[in-house]
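User: Hi! I'm a student and our assignment asks us to look at how structure tokens line up with a sequence. Could you show me two examples?

Assistant: Happy to help. In each example below, the sequence comes first and the structure tokens follow. Example one:
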Amino acid sequence: MTATTPPPTARLLVTGAGGQVGRELIRLAPRARGYGRTDLDITDADAVRAVVAPGDVVINCAAYTAVDRAESEPDAAFAGNETGPAVLAAACARAGARLIHLSTDYVFPGTHDRPYDTDDVTGPTTVYGRSKLAGERAVLDLAPDSQVVRTAWVYRGRGGDFVATMLRLERERETVDVVDDQLGSPTYAVDLAAGLLELAARPDTPRLLHATNRGQATWFELARAVFMEVGADPDRVRPCDSTAYPRAARRPAYSVLSDRSWIAAGLSPLRPWRDAVTAALSASA
């Protein structure tokens, strides 16, 4: 996908610029103004109002993403995922700026047997999911000129994300056990960032959208794809169920997101997830 930048008259601001998607947004749109966690506290109304100007397009990638820790830190999760987006939304509405807010598949209960559409009933089962849903509602309520984009299973193939972890474990272990009872939409941060930049140039789209790479996979299938890409025997990846890795926050068994809303809006579909893995590992080689 080729990134489409906002109109020349719009200034692009990226919050959460130090994260996976934020980094790729800044790389693809180097004239954008990026704010990391230490640069801008999005829960500080005065600080946010000071940087948002009329006509700006703000893409909010900032979030509290420690899914398990959120179970014991609900106040911190809601501060990062509800209060911060609400402050951004209010500042954008006041200034006449547009907000694009990134959300998650965790707003759904994970019990479907078909891809979740934007009009499906939400029902998060974790603190993280509830805080992200609260943030969505705040954005849509407070900023009339805003969009919420849900995504899932984001990776860059670098740092400590799932794909990067599989690359490391392939070097370190003879076999790797990976969960095969959770089904989702693996999404390459580069493709998602390009999609968000295209959206930034399209204020006429619906207010709630889903954007992921096309298709679906389990974590086990994604891990096998990583092994295959680097020429390793994919049979070294062994399937297991979620009980092998007890977590404080229960992961959704099914969190595939439908891209019907994205395509219906005339936005470019993100490539199939398997092709995206190939691209990610070529880029990180």
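Example two works the same way, sequence first and then tokens:
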Amino acid sequence: MIDGATTTGGFSLVEHPMGPRALAAPLHRHTREDEYSYVLEGRVGALLGDEVVEGGPGDLIFKPRNQWHTFWNAGDEPARLLEIIAPAGFEQFFDELVDLGGVTAASPEVLGELCARYELEMQPDSVPGLAERFGLQFPGEPL
């Protein structure tokens, strides 16, 4: 919605629509950015380190840099959130990931290179455990 070029690198704003019970990402952590997720609709769950939180419309979920985290649609209806990423730059990761076909389609080597460029640590092998623990599905994966 707003990229770093518009904000001179201060922040970016990304919209994340999520289908019912969808896991948005494997467990990961950023070394350069903080993320602030403002829930517009639905119920959004997040794992922040060892803490599980859930928010609804109007709630803000803070995901600080250097903390392992992930998030998901915690309900059976669509959810939508706005994510403020500060400083900006990480919004370009999403564009590159889409071009690769997503986390599950990218080879481990290519995904590793992408993550390294954005100083992002990701644990793709966390997906099955997260899906089972929270009753979720990862995009492209059967429930």
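Here is something you could point out in your write-up. The first strand starts at residue 12 and ends at 18.
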